[in-house]
Amino acid sequence: MERRYTVGGACVTEELIPGYRCSTASLVNSLFRPEIIQDLSLYNFGLEFIPRDPSVISLLPDGQHLMLGKNEEESVKQIQKFSAKDAKNYPIYGRMMGRLAQFLEPLILNTPPDCSPDNASSMKAGLHHLLELPDNDFVNFIEMLSGSARHFLDRWFESEVLKAALTIDGITGVNASPSMPGTAYLMLYHMIGSTETGRPAWGQIRGGMGGLTHALATAAKSFGATIRTEATVTKILVENKRASGVVLEDGEEIRAQAVVSAADPHLTFLKLLESRDLPADFRNAVSNMDFEGVAMKIHLALDRLPDFYGFDNSNPGPQHQGTVLIAPSMDYLENAYTDARHGSPSHRPHIECSIPTVLDPSLAPEGKHLMGIYLQYTPYTLKDATWDEIKESYADKVLDCIEEYAPGFKDSVLARKVYSPKDLEREIGLTGGNLYHGAMSLNQLFSLRPVLGWAKYRTPVNNLFLCGSGAHPGGGVFGVPGRNASQEIVKDFKEGLIETSTVTRG
């Protein structure tokens, strides 16, 4: 069942501006797992990844820039412009990050252990696994697991532009500054997918991000699935402490042997279930989860490519292919967060711009271009206004910031579509506008996701499963929560824990 007219949640392609096919709430991808692609033969159903090189172009106010991509030698040359020390350390750092990501991968890709007080042995086994790391990697892993991106990177590098470019993967979508604990882990988390030296290899999908979910939907249908759109679920039916189906907005009841929810924990447990269906301690734990989002999305129709300061822009160049980053220093990001902490959108926000039409012209009319802008920190809860009141005027300020790095940029904008955190909640269904279905802090990760004792995709309601980003390991167009949940569901069917009687509709 899908509430909207198209499947995919936040990972969809929509014609938000006439003639322009936008990736609504997710712009690029590196995390989606090759195992899922192979299991479902997604390449046979139209999935195509488009690599980008360079993958990030970090702009500085004076026209200098740092470009990082898949070619390590070229990346080192770019870093050399700012620091010889950093250029030497970058490959070493990259190899270390690769080793730690390889160590973390099985913890991420498998169902986590039950670490409730009655199952302490599972936690001990997990901690024992850490002892397999060499001493230096052990120290680095512990620091990354518990520390901040800023403090971790300060030990490796001195160049502000490099540290800021690497930090982005630790703060994107989270309500935290680079100096807050947990942000170092998220840098490592994003290394589980396709990578370059020391950072994720963010690429795009042909046809926009909806190309991925379209391939998934087509594959599902080929295996016999029935997909219904514009079918809003208003209630999960529970009978004899078992999920037995759902009720749609028009009153239709659909009976099922099991119910699997890809909605976030807040919607699943606090909106779609009666309070009597859940233990009070479980409801209280979900109620105390952090769903505060900090991100906005802006989609722009452009009549020409931006003329970024410091480049030869006479033709499409590398500066147009990757993510253009406006976050020149760590202090810049800290100040942006400070604004949001006091209830205001950042005066100078962290901005990431992608122009997918350079590599996939089919997304816009001939000769035109599409820009997707991700930005933060834009707190869901504002102190002195509402998002409906200020989102358009704030979007104007964002375009002013880009204009400083690309003179004449604002004159190239033909139309736009703005998503505030409130819009992401209302239109996409993300509680609090949170892109990850809940905070990615350590108290909401691994065996604590969504809450302690319920990290194995099952819930206190028998035959009700959670399979979205609110389950382990978290968000990021990953596919792993759904893959892991499906394996647990199959296991329960095989063990006879889910009845296989005929499903009826009422």
Automatic annotation (TrEMBL):
Residues 189-477 form the Amine oxidase domain. It comes from the Bacteria. Transmembrane segments: none annotated. One of its GO terms (molecular function) is oxidoreductase activity. Pfam families: Amino_oxidase (PF01593). SUPFAM superfamilies: FAD/NAD(P)-binding domain. PANTHER family: PHYTOENE DEHYDROGENASE, PYRIDINE NUCLEOTIDE-DISULFIDE OXIDOREDUCTASE DOMAIN-CONTAINING PROTEIN 2. Probable oxidoreductase that may play a role as regulator of mitochondrial function. Interacts with COX5B; this interaction may contribute to localize PYROXD2 to the inner face of the inner mitochondrial membrane. This is Pyridine nucleotide-disulfide oxidoreductase domain-containing protein 2.
